[in-house]
UniProtKB/TrEMBL annotation:
Ranges for domain CzcB-like barrel-sandwich hybrid: 98-222
An annotated GO cellular component: efflux pump complex
Family to which the UniProt record says this protein belongs: Belongs to the membrane fusion protein (MFP) (TC 8.A.1) family.
Gene Ontology molecular function, alphabetical: efflux transmembrane transporter activity
Ranges annotated as spanning the membrane: 6-25
Protein name according to UniProt: Multidrug transporter MdtA
Domain (CusB-like beta-barrel) ranges: 232-299
Length: 388
């Protein structure tokens, strides 16, 4: 393209940009006036634009009112929001009573009377050890007792022929024989491994013929009529949770089911490393749906802390911090706020606000301290014709 064509195109572009600036920018007239231009023509057919007014006057005309005309805004009423009203924690369940059964004596397993999953009662025999030696010892103690009883009875019948010391020795021998028999019977009784509690048998780790000691696990018993769930809560709930407070628990193994319970115990200290406190809840398991070792999501409800809730769009910032515009009697006023919690639909704040206060959410750019405002909803209602 020749140079003179390029030059003409540039002039046209500059003229068009200047005309657009004059027409659309509110402060263009004031700028031209200060630069020494008294009149500017707009690019309109067969019409010239009169002298540009001052910027304030031009803005007022374009906005459809004077400098003190009320600003059209939209508002939303303040409501009360609650924070710290729920607690959710992960816990681990355990049976209300759980025992690892071990034999009270060493020996060889001769008989196993239970199987995994059996529901047993306290005192039921689980397994038996070899007991031949103990049976013999009990028989010997029984014979010794009978001999001691006969000797003591004979000495009592012939007191006149024997000394009092001999009679006393015979009585002592009888008592010793009785104790020996009791010890033999106890040793024989310990050859039977019995259940110390009611419960359900787990997997049995022994077999017939195994040689066991007093530290060898024979079976595990769980009384899971109730489940204890231990979980940890943040430090701020330390003075809020009380014994007996209701809890709700859910388990991955039982989706959709909610199990009710109550706080059973609260630890007496805060863990310094995690700044949490241990809490134990008791959950009813009469239906036997839960197992020890399950993970639970424990939920608790509290009264919570109440704060004013405002629309996220209403919160503005300046050099002094956050604030909102409150409308009172058609006037806007700035209220300082401190943000407590942000949520997708509202923001909880600390501020001098009451329920029902009108807070500006739209038209914020033109709102000023003490300036007049018109609420959009009120304008619409005033424009409707009155009904007879």
């Amino acid at each position: 393209m020749p140079f003179w064509k390029q030059f003409i195109v540039c002039l046209v572009v500059i003229a068009a940009g200047f005309a657009g600036w004059v027409y659309f920018v509110p402060g263009a007239g004031e700028t031209l006036r200060k630069a020494g231009f008294s009149k500017v023509s707009k690019l309109a057919p067969d019409e010239a634009v009169p002298q540009l007014p001052a910027s304030g006057e031009g803005q007022s005309r374009r906005r459809g009112g004077g400098a003190n005309a009320p600003v059209l805004v939209a508002t939303q009423a303040v409501v009360r929001g609650i924070v710290n009203d729920r607690l959710s924690a992960i816990g681990t369940g355990d049976a209300i009573r759980s025992v690892v059964v071990m034999p009270q004596a060493s020996g060889t397993i001769r008989e196993i009377l239970i199987k995994s999953g059996d529901r047993i009662t306290k005192g039921q025999v689980l397994a038996k050890l070899d007991s031949e030696e103990q049976v013999i010892a009990r028989g010997q103690a029984d014979v010794a007792l009978k001999s001691a009883i006969e000797k003591s009875s004979l000495y009592h019948n012939i007191k006149s022929s024997v000394s009092r010391m001999d009679v006393f020795d015979a009585e002592i021998a009888e008592q010793g024989a009785r104790l020996q028999l009791q010890a033999a019977e106890l040793n024989l009784e310990r050859r039977s491994i019995v259940a110390p509690i009611d419960g359900i048998v787990g997997i049995i780790p022994i077999n017939i013929g195994d040689n066991v000691a007093t530290t060898t696990p024979v079976a595990t018993l769980d009384d899971r009529t109730e489940i204890l769930v231990d979980y940890w809560v943040p430090e701020r709930f330390a003075n809020t949770i009380t014994v007996g407070q209701p809890v709700e628990a859910t388990s991955v193994a039982r989706p959709g089911r909610v199990f009710s319970g109550a706080v059973e115990a609260i630890d007496n200290r805060i863990d310094a490393a995690s700044r949490t406190m241990r809490v134990r809840a008791r959950i009813d398991n009469a239906s036997d749906e839960l197992r020890a070792g399950m993970s639970f999501n424990v939920g608790m409800k509290f009264g919570g802390d109440r704060y004013p809730a405002v629309d996220p769009l209403s919160v503005q910032w300046d050099s002094q911090g956050a604030f909102v515009w409150k409308v009172v009697d058609g006037k806007s006023g700035k209220v300082r706020v401190s943000i407590v919690q942000r949520n997708p639909d509202y923001i909880l704040v600390k501020a001098d606000l009451k329920d029902g206060d009108a807070i500006v959410t739209e038209g914020l750019q033109r709102v000023r301290e003490g300036g007049g405002v018109r609420v959009a909803g009120e304008v619409a209602s005033n424009s409707e014709p009155a009904t007879q």
